[in-house]
Amino acid sequence: MLTSQPLVVTAMGHGCRQMVQMDKYGFPRIGYKAKKPVPGWKTGDIINVVKGKNAGLKGVRIKTVRTKGSFDIRQGDKILSVSRNHIQPVHRRDGYNYSY
């Protein structure tokens, strides 16, 4: 089966694991703030928004996962906040970004 449109796969990197902020001399400035993640969701998951005022958005990536259960998503230049009760997973994060 031939297609006229190739799939573009982009590696998204590994992120950052900085545990504490440092001052200009390299000493720890503030302590590590332990936060419990929202079960089952990570930054980079692709979702559809099915309810709420942003309903109808399809194939958007989660930008930030908050501990309270809401997420930031980016659509164009705007950053929108949606609840975990209003979204449906499409693809779990695997470290790559897929597009045509």
The structural domain count equals 1
The count of helical stretches stands at: 0
The overall strand count is 7
Broad CATH class: Mainly Beta
Overview of this protein structure:
The protein has 100 residues and is mainly β. The protein has a single domain, classed as SH3 type barrels. Helix content is 0%, strand content 35%. It has no helices and seven strands. The chain has strands at 8-11, 46-49, 60-65, 70-75, 78-83, 87-91, 96-99. The strands form two sheets. It has a five-stranded antiparallel β-sheet with strand order 5-4-3-2-6, with no helix packed on it. A hairpin with a 2-residue loop joins strand 4 (70-75) and strand 5.
Give the topology.
Elements: E1 8-11, E2 46-49, E3 60-65, E4 70-75, E5 78-83, E6 87-91, E7 96-99
Antiparallel strand pairs: 1-7, 2-3, 2-6, 3-4, 4-5
Short structural summary:
This protein is an all-beta fold and 100 residues long. It has no helices and 7 strands.
